[in-house]
């Protein structure tokens, strides 16, 4: 399987406030990305899947990565 890089944009509800997010991850498909977002936000912020709204998942080129940790891995 070929690993691709995706940029994910969306919002999540924590308390009474909505917060925007942009994350970049390596994965084999978009379904894996969705699962990673739900897992990481759930464990880090203690929120449920219904509090996370993924608005956009875009495949990006390695040279377009801005996340410093992901850049180092590549």
TrEMBL record:
<dbReference type="GO" id="GO:0006412">
    <property type="term" value="P:translation"/>
</dbReference>
<dbReference type="InterPro" id="IPR028877">
    <property type="entry name" value="Ribosomal_eL20"/>
</dbReference>
<comment type="similarity">
    <text>Belongs to the eukaryotic ribosomal protein eL20 family.</text>
</comment>
<comment type="subunit">
    <text>Part of the 50S ribosomal subunit. Binds 23S rRNA.</text>
</comment>
<dbReference type="Pfam" id="PF01775">
    <property type="entry name" value="Ribosomal_L18A"/>
</dbReference>
<keyword id="KW-0699">rRNA-binding</keyword>
<dbReference type="GO" id="GO:0003735">
    <property type="term" value="F:structural constituent of ribosome"/>
</dbReference>
<dbReference type="InterPro" id="IPR023573">
    <property type="entry name" value="Ribosomal_eL20_dom"/>
</dbReference>
<keyword id="KW-0694">RNA-binding</keyword>
<dbReference type="GO" id="GO:0005840">
    <property type="term" value="C:ribosome"/>
</dbReference>
<protein>
    <recommendedName>
        <fullName>Large ribosomal subunit protein eL20</fullName>
    </recommendedName>
</protein>
<keyword id="KW-0687">Ribonucleoprotein</keyword>
<feature type="domain" description="Large ribosomal subunit protein eL20">
    <location>
        <begin position="4"/>
        <end position="57"/>
    </location>
</feature>
<dbReference type="GO" id="GO:1990904">
    <property type="term" value="C:ribonucleoprotein complex"/>
</dbReference>
<keyword id="KW-0689">Ribosomal protein</keyword>
<dbReference type="GO" id="GO:0070180">
    <property type="term" value="F:large ribosomal subunit rRNA binding"/>
</dbReference>
């Amino acid at each position: 399987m070929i690993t691709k890089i995706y940029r994910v944009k969306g919002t999540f509800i924590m308390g009474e406030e909505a917060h925007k997010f942009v994350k970049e991850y390596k994965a084999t498909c978009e379904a894996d990305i969705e699962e990673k977002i739900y897992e990481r936000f759930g464990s880090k912020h203690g929120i449920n899947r219904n509090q996370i709204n993924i608005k956009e998942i875009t495949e990006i080129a390695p040279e377009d990565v801005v996340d410093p940790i992901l850049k180092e891995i590549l």
